[in-house]
Each structure stands twice: as structure tokens, then as C-alpha cells.
Amino acid sequence: MNKAKLIIVLLFAISSRSFAQQKTATPQWRPTYHFTPPTNWTNDPNGLIYLNGEFNLYYQHNPFENKWGHMSWGHATSKDLIHWKHLPVAIPEILSKDTTTWIYSGSAVLDKNNTSSFGLNGQAPIVAIFTADQPKQKKESQFIAYSNDNGLSYNLYANNPVIDLQMHDFRDPNVFWYEPTKQWIMTVAMVDEHMVRIYGSKDLKKWTKLSDFGPAGYTKNGWECPSLIPLSVDGDPTRLKWVLFVSSGGDHGPLMQYYIGDFDGVTFKNNNPTDKVLTVDYGDAFYAAIAWRDAPGNKKILLGWLQNGRKETYPWKGQMSIPHDLYLKTTDEGLKLIQIPSTIISNSLSKLSKGKKLIKENISLTGRLDLSGNNSFNNNANWLDVEFNLGDAKKVGVIVAEKMGSDQKITVGYDVIKKELYVDCTRSESGNKDTRNLIQTAPMRSVNGVVRMQVLIDKSSLEVFGNSGEKVISTMIYPDKDATGISLFSDGKTMVRSLKVWDLNNANK
Questions:
Q1: Sign of the C-alpha dihedral computed for residues 322, 326, 331 and 333 taken in this order
Q2: What burial letters (b/e) apply to 14-49, b meaning 16+ CB within 10 Å?
Q3: Which residue ranges does the record assign to the Glycosyl hydrolase family 32 N-terminal domain (predicted)?
Q4: How far is residue 190's CA from residue 277's CA, in Å, rounded to a whole number?
Q5: Quick one: which H or E segment has residue 313?
């Protein structure tokens, strides 16, 4: 991601003075079940590839400082998306006498048929495709590099760049193999034109322009991080639609939008009106997400960067979202994207919680029900799944990060009258957020009078999935060390049909 665009997206940019002064460790905000680097800055996920039973995560990284700069590709691997092995920097910035080249966002592919001829001794190479940002030349172009050691280190292609339009803002290539035409397909952002350019290649070296998509949807700010993936409709693997993701700065924070349509190997055709905006996440943090395309069970798993907000953390800054399994669902408003916390994680919650869990059914509720007693669930690292039969209630939900003896708390709720899922941070985050983001909402209707909420709080992040992934709100929070209370609430009488809570404070140990 370009630094200027980063500042635009982070409307609440932190001053360089506060960067320099922050040296106090903040373990109370270090996530336990979300990815963070051990030290220093991270932003966009890059090069997501599943290989030899492991998820590879490359990511935008400053190896030297806890702020944006020296952009390189950090690297980590995991078998379960919770426990990460941190590896050396895979692709460092390139410094020469006259030029600095930063390694911006991109993708990585396993070249199974060795179309690039980079493979050795019959072993398929991994090829990384990324944006080379050269600030002195005010230019962004597309580079490739290849690995012959399973992605641990990369060699730059001698004839880089492979695409150069002599443009300042032209970035974030995402590449996949398209079997019907037996070629590689790249989507890349024409940032200020609000377009996604689609290229094709037989060998990952020579690229031909195929088509352009856009402008469409939200166009008030530049486009970044496009990716095009096929998803099944209503669980039927024979019914596929293509989904194009685009990131952009929204009206008051990050925005990810998506388009549903058809792809014929050359052109993406949007099935919705040009001005229709479909939103991936309704919060103020989720951005630059791309997917593992090749996860077990043919899953498509989306991973985003959760933007930080105003608070400083140390000795790291930045974290990834919970991974999302992706589907398409037919609704009375047309096809919609469904996102659920990846089942690779959710199916392991009992193991990850090490027995610290609470499961109940059919609880009559009016007022409050405290969940943070008995030394469990009082550490701001919990995963909660609750279904409310709304009954006569006007509002229902979950209170998290509550500080006893004060009014500090965060409310995750459903407003029956407004038909909205919401996150209310007005009593906790007024110093950290723009006033327009203290209450974040997503339109959502109950299903036969029932609302389901999955609430994931992990020290400094809060992600809410409404009605089994129909709506998502992601945000960053910075509660006091002793603001750890969690409870259910109901304004009016409701029935809690199902309640499941897992304490994940030791999930990564």
C-alpha cells in the first residue's frame, strides 16, 4: 500500500512525534488468537498460499521500526491459523546507489507446471508478484521474484519490471491460474482511475492486457488491493460466481467493497447496477483483504489487516483479522457475500480454550447476565456465540470490556426497531476514534424473530458477525487493563436460545 494512500485511509493518522516516543510495552493489547508480528510494523497481508500442509502468510512489514517504512515482505507459517512460526524477512527492500525499491503488496503462486522455468531439479517454484514502489522516481511497477526453497527466500527476476506503465499509483497485483484458457490472470489497481486492470500471461514474465473493470460502486477515493475469486452459490459447487474485491478509503475510514459477476478469462462482468455498493465490512478497521485460494476442502479464506486507530502499541503495531470462510447466498435482495470465522479455527475452540468454556440454552433474560465470574472470560480474549429469540425486547446484545465502578464499556447489540446490528464505543473509545465511528452499524433483519451474534474480542480487536455471517463489523479497541467485564443484556424480555463462550486467553500457548 502506498504511504500517501495509507495516510488517507487512516484518517486519524498518528503524529511522528508519538511514534518516536512510544517505548512502553502494551501487553494488555497484544492479541492471543490473531496474528501480529513479534516486533515492528505490519499492514496488508500478502502472498497467501497453502503449501505442504501449512498456511503461508507474507505481510507488509518494517523490519527496523514500529512505524510504517522500509517496506518488505515479512513471513510466517501456521497449520491451524492460530499458532504462527515467525520466519526471516522473505523479500527485503532493495537499496542501490540511486534507487530505493520498497516491496509493496502482491501475491504468490505455486507454479506447478514450471511455466516460468524458475523451477530446479523437478521442484515447482513459488513465484511472488508484487508492486515495486520507487519513491525517488515516483513510480510503481510490477516485479516478480522466485523461490526454490518453499518460499523461505526469493531471487529477483533479472528482467524486472514485468509490467511498467510509468505510473505513480499502479499497484497490488493478485495472480491466479485460470484453467480454461491455461494462463495466469492478474488483477491490479489503476488507483486514481478507479479501475481494475486484468492481464494474462503464459509464463508469469510476459503480460498482456486483457480488459479493464470500472469505475463502479464507490469511487470517492482511490482503489487498491483488487482480487478476483470464484465462489459457490448456496453451497452448490457446480454453481459458481466470481467476486471482485476492491479496497478504498471510505467516507470516514477504510472501505472494502465487492462486485458479483462472471469472468470468461478476459473480462469481468458485474451482475449488479454500476452504482451499487456492496460492503464487505461495516466497521472502521478491516482493509486490504485477500484470500487463500487453495485451502483444504477448496475453501476460500479471506484475511484482512485491522487498521490501528490512534493508540500506540509496542513492541509491535498492526494485526490481522480473524480469517473468514467465504460463500455466496441467494437472498431476497439478490446474491450476497457470506463471511464466517473460518471453521479451521471455530472447530477447534474447545481445544484452544483448554476447557474454559460455557454452554447454556434457553435462558430467560430481562436486564443483565454477568459472564465474567469464576476467573474465566475476564481477560478480553473471548469468543462468544449467542442466539436471541427477541420476544418483546427492543435491544439485545453483549457488553464487553466493561470496567467495574465506571461507565467504561463497549456494547455490541441488535436494535429491533431500527433493524440494525451495532457496536457502540461511546463510553470507551472517545479518545481513540473519530466521533463518527463511535457507533458503527450494519442493516440486518432478524430471521423468524431470532438474531445470532458471534462476538470475537481479542485484547485490542473486536469483530462481530451477525446472522451467521450476513453482516460483519470489525473495529479496534483499547480498554483499560482492568476493563474486562463481559455480560449479556436485554432491554425487555428475551429468550437466549443458545449461549456459547470460550476463554481464549491461552489459545496461542
A1: positive
A2: beeeebeebeeebebbbbbbbbbbebbbbbbbbbbb
A3: 34-341
A4: 19
A5: none
Q: What is the structure's pLDDT at 83?
A: 98
Q: Which amino acid is at 493?
A: K
pTM for the model? 0.95
Render pLDDT for 313-338 as a digit per residue (tens, 0 to 9): 999 999 999 999 999 999 999 999 99
Mean pLDDT of 81-104: 97
State the maximum Cα–Cα separation within the chain, in Å, rounded to a whole number.
Answer: 71
**74 alpha-carbon distance from chain centroid:** 16
The cell for 186 is 492478474
Cell of 72: 518488505
Given a cut of 70, is residue 238 above it in pLDDT? yes
Point out the catalytic residue in the list 44, 284, 385, 458. 44
Q: Distance between CA atoms of 136 and 499, rounded to whole angstroms?
A: 56
pLDDT at 243 over 80: yes
How far from each other are the two terminal CA atoms of the chain, in whole angstroms? Answer: 32
> What is the arrangement of strands in the sheet containing 72-78, beginning at the earlier edge strand?
84-91, 72-78, 54-61, 40-51, 316-317
Classify residue 233 by burial, with Cβ atoms within 10 Å: 0-12, 13-18, 19+: middle
pLDDT in tens, 281-290: 999 999 999 9
Rg over alpha carbons for the chain, rounded to the nearest Å, is 22
Annotated catalytic residue 44 = yes
Nine-digit cell string for 415: 436494535
Q: Average the pLDDT over 498-507 and give the result.
A: 97
Residue with cell 463481559: 486
State the Cα–Cα distance between residues 332 and 101, nearest whole angstrom: 49
Q: Which residues fall within 8 angstroms of residue 92, CB to CB, at 6 or more apart?
A: 63, 72, 73, 103
Domains, the chain, ranges and CATH? Answer: 31-343 (2.115.10.20), 355-503 (2.60.120.560)
Q: Which residue has the cell 429491533?
A: 416
